[in-house]
Amino acid sequence: MKLKTLSVLAGLGGTLIVCDPVAGEFLGFEISPEQSQFGINVCTFSAFFDNPDDRLLAVAGTASAPLMVDFISGGTFYQHVFGGDTAPLQALIDLFPSLADDTFVTIGVEVDDGTDATRLTPGWPGFGAMALGGPNQAWFVTPDDAQAAPDPTGRVLLGHFSTADFVAARGRFVILAISDGEPILRYTGDCCFLSEAPCTEGDVDPDNVVGILDFLRLLSDWGPCPPDDFCWADLNNDGEVGIVDFLLLLGNWTAPGPDPLPSVDADVNGDGVVNNADIERVRTCWGSQQSPFCDPADLDGDGMVGVRDILILLANWGGSPADPAVPDPPADGQTISAKR
């Protein structure tokens, strides 16, 4: 269920969104807004797990479920001149403390001590002024990377979205996780509101998709909200479910969830183990459609090597301890790109 409690953090609204826990699924998301000492509004998005052995492996956008992070009421991302698209280096924060407020994506790392393993897919577009989005892009780590595991509070940080001039931000994306030993693929997300602005994300039921079920729920709640209740269908928070809420719901309509990952042999290079060598083959062949070298990298059989092939690799990670070790790619091959 979705909690109907809104907490206040540093004068700003914050929510914890919790899904009904079932075997093989994570619990939900924590959206934490706060204002820094430099006057920057920061929204952190974290996946929330109840098993310390769970892993958050990737945040992605696919053709059927594109990635989207943008602003509901206008605004621009805060992007520090010394920042990148992944977590900032501790050594630079020591010199430029406001760098800690930078906008970035991550798997489990808020400050990089030089060991951050978060990778970006080839062709990563970087943050624009107002949005990050589109299909066939992802940030990810492998199950071997310790930062994929929840911290002692059960959370894995996945995004740090900052601004000096917005009041509400939203995000929708595919997550790939290993929870209770099983891979899960979910198109999900939520929104973060600041100051007094309501969060008009539109997921009324909530099932992590804004669609026909939300429309039907909105119709069933049409009219004044009970004074002792919080109406999820009251998207503009004016005490009544009406035409404005209907228009807001339509404006946040989302596509169906991602196509399921096929069950295939993910050993791209045929060495008997699914590991970094296979990821590097996929990255080398990114976007390729036909060639003897790249054909095995098209694991989902869609005619193109892309983000779903990375997700299939991560979901099938592993091999025998007797398998020969394959070194990780060099640091400069991990696509930690600059914003500018």
Comma- or semicolon-separated keywords:
15 strands, disordered N terminus, alpha+beta, 340 residues, 6-stranded antiparallel sheet
Count of helices? 5
| Proportion of strand residues | 25-35%
On the 0 to 100 scale, the average pLDDT is 82
How many individual β-strands?
Answer: 15
Output the structural class.
alpha+beta
Largest sheet: 7 strands, antiparallel
- The assembly state of the depicted protein chains is single chain
Termini separation comes to: 41 Å
Gyration radius, in Å: 20 Å
Number of structural domains: 2
Summarize the structure.
This protein has 340 residues and is α+β, with helices and mostly antiparallel strands. Helices cover 12% and strands 26% of the residues.
Structure description:
The chain has helices spanning 90-95, 212-220, 243-251, 276-284, 307-315, and strands spanning 7-9, 12-18, 28-35, 41-48, 55-61, 67-71, 104-105, 119-120, 131-134, 137-140, 155-163, 168-179, 182-193, 223-224, 240-241. By secondary structure, the chain is of the alpha+beta class. 44% of the residues are buried. It has 5 helices and 15 strands.
List the helices and strands and how they pair.
Elements: E1 7-9, E2 12-18, E3 28-35, E4 41-48, E5 55-61, E6 67-71, H1 90-95, E7 104-105, E8 119-120, E9 131-134, E10 137-140, E11 155-163, E12 168-179, E13 182-193, H2 212-220, E14 223-224, E15 240-241, H3 243-251, H4 276-284, H5 307-315
Antiparallel strand pairs: 1-2, 2-3, 3-4, 4-11, 5-10, 5-12, 6-9, 6-12, 7-11, 8-10, 12-13, 14-15
